[in-house]
Every structure is written in C-alpha cells, then in structure tokens.
Amino acid sequence: MEDIIRSHKEIYGEKPLVIASAPGRVNLIGEHTDYNDGFVLPMAIDFRVMVAVSPRKDQNLKFYSVDFDDKKRTSISNLRYKREDRWANYPKGMINVILSKGYRVEGINLTVKGNVPVSAGLSSSAALEIATGFAIRELFKLDISGLEMAMLARDAEDSFVGVHCGVMDQFISCLAREEHVMLIDTRTLEFRQIPLKLNTAKILITNSNVPRALIDSEYNQRREECEKCVALLNTRKSGSALRDYTVADLRDSLGLIPESTRKRCLHVVEENQRVLDAEIALKRNNFSILGKLMNRSHESLRDLYEVTCPELDWLVKRAWETEGVYGSRMTGAGFGGCTVSLIEEGSIQLYKEKIEQYERIFSFKPEIYICKPMGGAKIIYSSL
Ligand code: GLA
User: For the chain, how far is it from start to end, CA to CA, in angstroms?
Assistant: First the structure.
C-alpha cells in the first residue's frame, strides 16, 4: 500500500484520501452460463487491484497506472470509450455509470496498482471496476449497496467497454467471503456462500499465457447465438433465457435450430446442472465427484461451446493424467487464459513435471498460482 501512496503523491503532488482494493476471481464451474440466467461457482483469489483517489477542485478526471507507468485524462462531461485509453476505460466506465444513475461525482485524481494477471481470464478488469466503485463511493459518500455496485460494474463493462458479459466477475469481486466459494443464481441474484474445506487439496491455476486477440468478438458472438436459440425455442415453449429450457427441449428442437447453435445451447443447459451437482459435492466434501464435473465441463467447452484452444486442452489433459488431480478445466471466457485444477498438494511437483514441455511446444511460458478463496472488495485506507 505504501507504493501506491508514494506514486499518487509523485504524480499528483498530494496524498490519496481513500484506497480501495478488489480481488480477481477464478470460476470453479459454470462457464458461459451467467448471461443465460444460469448458475456459476466462482471464488475470489489472492490477486488484487488497488485504486487510490483524491478529490480535485475542477471537473477533470486524471488516471495513472503504476504497473503500466501510463497517464490518461478526461473530464466528467467528456466520458467516452476510447480504444487508446486501454486500462483507463474501466475506471472511466465505472464513473460514467455511477453518474448516469444520478449520483454526484466530481473531478478526481486516481491511481491504480495491482497484481491480477492481465488478460488471463482472472477478471483483472472487474477488479479494477469494483475497486474504482468502492473508492468513489467512499470519497463522495454515495449510498450504493454491494449488489448495486456489482450491477453498475457489469453495466460499465457492457455499455461502456462493449463486452456484453454476465454478472459473475463483478459480483464475486464485490461480495466474496474468505474461505468460501459462491454459488450465484444469475437470474434472481440470490447467492449462497459455501465453505471450501480443502484439507490437503489445493486450487491450482495455470496461466497458458496465450494472447487473447479475438476474445471480445467471439464472446459477444456466443452470447448472440444463445439469444437466437432462445427466440426459436420460444416459438414452441415460452421462456426468456436458456435457463428455462431442458436437454429434452433441445432434443425436440432438431430441425428448428441449426445444429451448431444447438451444440452451444446444450453446453449451457448441461453446465447449469453441473454447477448444482458441484454444490452438493462441495457440501459433502466429495472432491472426486467435483473433479469429474470439472472434467465434463471442460469437455463440453471444448466440443460443444468451442471456446478452448490447443494450449488449454493440452494443459488440462496433462492434469487429467496426473495422479492426485481430482479435476481440471479451462476457466473464464476461454480462447486462452487459465486452467483451474483441484489437486492434492503432494502431486503439484508431478504436475509441474508433466507440463515441462509446454513452452517448447507452444512457445508461451506457463505460470502456476496456488490460490485460496479470499474476501471481496474493501476500503484499505481512508483519511476522510
Ligand atoms: C467472462 C465474463 C463472465 C462470464 C465468463 C464465462 O469472464 O466476464 O461474465 O461470462 O466470461 O463464463
């Protein structure tokens, strides 16, 4: 925290009044279900983004990223998405949606510093949005609930940044509880905090480090496919999202829905059931069932939803071959990013040996993180 205070002082010549911090996340199971009104099972991880703010006397907004050593600026009346503003579009988007709901926000100096791996599918952008929201809420004493904050951040990503995502990442970054994973019903926004008793097991994340170039367009395209499918299914049985349909409904829709779209939807419908089954397995501490569900999830994302890539498939296969691994799958939106594995601590070395050839084959250096479920966003400094 001292670092971000020092940087803020160096750049703006004044101390921040508030610093907020928000975590990234890993999703254990329930992929591409959250924009279909389905279920997800994420947890916050021990990588966080910090946002420090101080008020200005004018209506300007100044942003500085310590990690990229990059400055951006705009003003309250001029908030627009700009491609070249890259990382700064997230705090800009957040301020924009907060303003659009009628809350009072004035000019600020803002500094960002974090350690959530960027573009790795661990939700560094959601962490940045939520940390910005928390810092601003504290600074201007805004009456925004945790749940509303998550929804505002999702709106920022959707309407400002242009990724039509679900609510999972922002929700968990905001409301996570230490030592718990969260089952979120993304339709009702009800959630259950489930204790994660790992004993000798670990949550191991492997970053494939594959550059994710097409992710936004592929993501939006998947979402559209799901929506089109619902429109077609709706001509036979009423429903507003894939959540309302069963595997049997999809089977009966042969001829009504193009085969490639039907495959996508089958993934979503079956994945929802896997999340509910995973919750039961978790409550019973049955890692072997939980692991199998993770494996089925990966197969489905690979064969039906088609959002994996050779690197992710390779890493997951090596994990499946490692004794002491209960389950392994890609996590996040896909097309690169990370895998998540549930593994006995004593097998981690063996897994590392299994993936030794990754860099030689794919030319990207993999990174491994062992993560514990952490708490959600909070204010870590305030001199108000
Ligand atoms: C991204 C989105 C989430 C979710 C996942 C896929 O992380 O931000 O809302 O859709 O992809 O499960």
Answer: 17
